[in-house]
Amino acid sequence: MGQRTAALTAWFAAVLACAGAVAAAPIVDLGPPDAFGFALDQPRVDVWFYRAGTSLWLGPESYTSFVLDTGANGLLAGEDAVDEMQGYGYQTDGRYYEQGVAGGQFLDVSELLDAEVVGSDSLAIEMLDLRILSSPDLDLGGFGGIIGMPAMVGRVIDWDLAAFPTDWLMGTHFLAEVPPPAPQNRRYTLDLQLVPFEQTGKEHPDDPNLTWAPLPFLTGEICSGPYRVRGQFVLDSGASLSFISTATAVALGLDTNHNGVIEYPAEAVDELDIGGVGGSLTVPLVVMDQIRLATREGPWLRWTEPLFAVVEIPGLDAVVGMELFTSGWFDEETFIGDNGFLDHVYLDFRQADALRGAACVDVRPDSNRLRLLPPDQAPSYDLLDLALFSQHWLRDDCTDACGGADFDADGDVDLADLLVLEQSWLAPPAEALGNPPYDLLDLAFFSRQWLRDDCTDACGGADFDADGDVDLADLLVLAQNWLIPPAVPPESP
Predict the structure, then answer these.
(1) How many other β-carbons are positioned within 10 Å of the β-carbon of residue 310?
(2) How far apart are the C-alpha atoms of 477 and 443, rounded to whole Å?
(3) Fewer Cβ atoms within 10 A, N terminus or C terminus of the chain?
(4) pLDDT-based confidence at 234, cuts 50/70/90?
């Protein structure tokens, strides 16, 4: 009996060892971003400006669609919108040197303005006594401009991704509160730290200050092979593609020729021309193994094989763009599909004065692939859960529940916890045990009957010795016939 128990434990240990080295943390495995790597859409609002304190309308008239950009400290109007506004008497009061990914340039500082900002549901907010940046020469790719964090502090913003199938654009709404998630969805919360930045670009010290607000940072981790970078990343809804700095790319092992830069084609999969403030430049594109974002609830949200542009970003490790959040809504045949990972993201900036915020992420049922969470939250475990579990196997110091592997919270990850993992292995299980050989599906069913002592019906076949209990004696029968073909009767002479 003792030898067979030891052999069974050794078999489980061997399976655990083969599961591979995976970071030991609960995760929600969302899958890969859309194949083309860029966001389907970005949060957008309609904007009209007025001379401050008056009813004098300054436009724009046609180019009213502005990006609602969490990666912008201020507000900005580009060439088409500025051309229209100048026709209605728009004026400027100074210049400010703005730094972009492609370099820097002087932009005009507006006269004092009021603004009306309207979301997808036609509900408007007012912004008073604004100073924005503008340039009649700045191409913003069809958008009239950028409305940054000053429009969002003190408010709740809804990125309505579920609007894609009907509207072909995501929705953007200003809300008073964060609504509860739909019953079929599971909500995870990304804690945001709001970081202030100084205004350092005034052309003259006595030029007016811009309307300005801090930027949101979240905790993230990017992995490439054996390399991993964890840090505070900017949440940037104005970016249709995520960025990493050259320093981050080097730390992730991408600088294979050790010259301090990432080059195409030797170290990158492609190149991309990007433009904006400061002009345009060509940047390399790289694919990482995964990016993970930490949640307040414990699990990390994970996207696999994400695409990043490598850009010099002074003082920043990475920028998280919109393509992660719009992922899954693309369908190669119909363009807009219905398999998006997320329904809504609610940005809660009501505690911006305390430099705190949150992004409430509602994950759709098909994407809520929970890994190594309590059994009541994860009805089906598979090999990825087993790999995570294996990182804590036989630990006896689980003050932090060992990433969820210490199911019974007794401080150890042992056979009792392994049996909990078995109980939800590859659910739904078979209806009953069949004939040998037995495999993982049989084990999944067997584990559902484990330690029952009321087997008047043989517990679906799990009570092999018909003594009314499913116990170690029955487990040993299962082990004896594990993946072993039944005997073949000899041929008749």
Answers:
(1) 24
(2) 12
(3) C
(4) very high
Quick check: 9 pLDDT over 50? no
Residues 143 and 223 in one domain: no
- Cβ–Cβ < 8 Å for 281, 302: no
Tell whether 101 and 133 lie within a shared domain.
Answer: yes
| CA-wise closest residue to 173 among 150, 157, 162, 154 | 157
Buried b / exposed e along 169-194 (16+ C-beta atoms within 10 A): bbbbbbbeebeebeeebbbbbbebeb
**Statement to judge: residues 385 and 471 lie in one domain:** yes
> What is the span of the domain harbouring residue 422?
2-25+371-480
In whole angstroms, give the CA distance from residue 63 to residue 148. Answer: 17
Note whether 351 and 258 are same-domain residues: yes
State the pairing for strand pair 242-244/307-310: parallel
pLDDT of 378 over the 50 cut: yes
Question: How confident is residue 384, by pLDDT bands cut at 50, 70 and 90?
Answer: low
432 occurs within a structural domain: yes
**21 and 31 inside one domain:** no
Decide if 140 is inside a domain. Answer: yes
Instruction: Give the chain's domain count.
Output: 3
* Top-confidence range, 13-27, 255-269, 276-290, 398-412: 255-269
Identify whether residues 132 and 272 lie together within a single domain.
no
Predicted TM-score (pTM) of the model is 0.74
For residues 359 and 395, membership in a common domain is answered with: no
Q: 423 and 282 in one domain? A: no
What is the C-alpha separation between 32 and 288, in angstroms, rounded?
11
| Radius of gyration for the alpha carbons in the chain, expressed in angstroms and rounded | 28
| More confidently predicted of 31 and 66 | 66
Answer with the one of 317, 333, 367 that is the final residue of a domain. 367
Residue 361 in any domain: the answer is yes
In a domain, 148, yes or no: yes
